[in-house]
Design a protein that fits this description.
This protein is 38% helix and 22% strand. The chain is an alpha/beta fold and 266 residues long.
Length: 266
């Protein structure tokens, strides 16, 4: 399978590498604030960025968090909160549509804190409120009963993740749409994508559809194994790895292979 990945990057100047953060570059931890990229993640991404056309991280995390965790990879594009904020060439841009929804999202967050005080609540950009029950799994059913009602009452959308759920402002920007936008750039015709969760599965599906209609030449999908992986993720994947560390090692070997083949880079 690794050989097929090496063969996939036949035209690195037109290849983009897109990767998630949590569960993909970093191990899942009980407190999301303490998540760190695994050893050599920064180095592997940096080497990849010198081989392929583009390397991007598309994550539910805010850009400020991603930049703190990956401070030495300015060559990489960062997309925070699924693409509602973007850092390109050092400039951070935030989707202006967030402003109209921020008061409603804040109100929902306060209600969740009041009704589920035991759980960890995380607000992102005023557009998303995330509820984490990994530290208190006994509250999962209570959270899953409450959050749909709050979403409906506030006009928000609900998305269930890994031992968590999010209420999001009704803005039609998702990881899948953001990655599809990258795939439509005229200088890119191949995508190598890696992920581990439901949003990554949706991106896998979207990229497969672009290949099917001829809008993208090829996609190579790497799934990172997890007991909480969504149904269908592994079936969609071109390759499955067992951990973020294994993925980072794969990236490093892939970049080295491409360089040895004398690919000229961008």
């Amino acid at each position: 399978m690794e050989r097929s990945l090496d063969e996939f990057i036949i035209d690195p100047r037109r290849t983009a590498v897109i990767v998630d953060f949590d569960g993909t570059l970093a191990d899942i931890v009980a407190d999301p604030a303490t998540a760190k990229p695994v050893t050599h993640a920064t180095r592997s991404l940096l080497v990849l960025s010198r081989v392929v056309r583009e390397v991007a991280i598309v994550s539910g995390r805010p850009i400020a968090f991603l930049r703190e965790q990956l401070p030495y990879v300015d060559e990489i594009e960062l997309y925070g909160v699924y693409g509602l904020e973007r850092e390109i060439d050092g400039n951070v841009m935030v989707d202006a549509r967030i402003l109209e929804h921020a008061p409603v999202v804040a109100d929902a967050a306060e209600l969740i804190k009041e009704l589920l005080p035991e759980l960890r609540i995380e607000q992102k950009l005023g557009a998303v409120v995330a509820v984490h029950w990994r530290e208190h799994p006994c509250f999962e059913q209570e959270a899953l009963a409450l959050l749909p009602r709050l979403a409906a009452d506030h006009g928000l959308t609900m998305h269930v993740g890994r031992m968590s759920a999010e209420l999001r402002a009704p803005i039609p920007t998702t990881k899948a749409t953001t990655i599809s936008d990258i795939a439509h750039r005229p200088e890119i015709n191949r995508i190598l994508i890696a992920g581990d969760d439901e949003a990554d599965y949706e991106a896998f599906v979207a990229l497969d559809e672009l290949v099917a209609v001829g809008e993208l030449e090829a996609v190579f999908k790497v799934a990172v194994r997890s007991p909480e992986a969504p149904a269908g993720l592994y079936e969609r994947a071109s390759l499955t790895v067992n951990s973020p560390t294994e993925l980072v090692d794969l990236f490093g070997r892939t970049a080295a292979f491409a360089m040895m083949r004398d690919y000229p880079g961008r």
